[in-house]
Specification:
The chain is an alpha+beta fold. The protein is 21% helix and 11% strand. The protein has helices at 2-13, 21-30, 75-81; strands at residues 31-36, 42-46, 60-63. A hairpin with a 5-residue loop joins β1 and β2.
């Protein structure tokens, strides 16, 4: 019982963990499912391709599978989401070019984040400081 109550609380307030009740309700009421990518993200658009009078185009949105991480949107879906093309890459057999790298998660804020030389968060913070540097100390 306590776990389901926590899940409900998270769904109401924590948009970054997936979808909230408001997004789920709007998607149910006005959304049309378009497709899913290899990461499990689900893509939607306004029902019947209805044009939004404010945007002057149809609205398109994604419900992430897990935490909201825009870097998990593949190039074909990125193209569709940003109205660079009208064909959704549902079964188009998209093949990445040789210079395109596979997805790597965004590690910002995690222990795996990049720590440049001299950062106090590095395991060896002194490793990046040059030997000729003398810190200033007040007299």
């Amino acid at each position: 019982m306590e776990q389901s109550l926590m899940q409900r609380f998270v769904q109401i307030f924590a948009w970054w963990t997936g979808t909230t009740w408001g997004t789920s309700f709007t998607t149910w009421l006005r959304g049309e499912f378009v497709g899913t990518d290899q990461f499990g993200n689900r893509y939607f658009r306004t029902r019947n391709g209805k044009i939004d009078p404010v945007l002057d185009m149809e609205r398109r949105w994604v419900i992430y599978n897990g935490p909201a991480d825009p870097t998990t949107i593949p190039p074909g879906w990125y193209r569709w989401m940003h109205h660079l093309g009208n064909e959704a890459p549902v079964n188009d057999g998209y093949k990445p070019r040789e210079w395109q790298k596979p997805h790597q998660p965004n590690l910002t804020g995690t222990p795996g984040a990049h720590r440049p030389q001299g950062s106090i968060l590095r395991p060896d913070p002194e490793a990046g400081i040059s030997a000729g540097y003398d810190a200033w100390t007040p007299q």
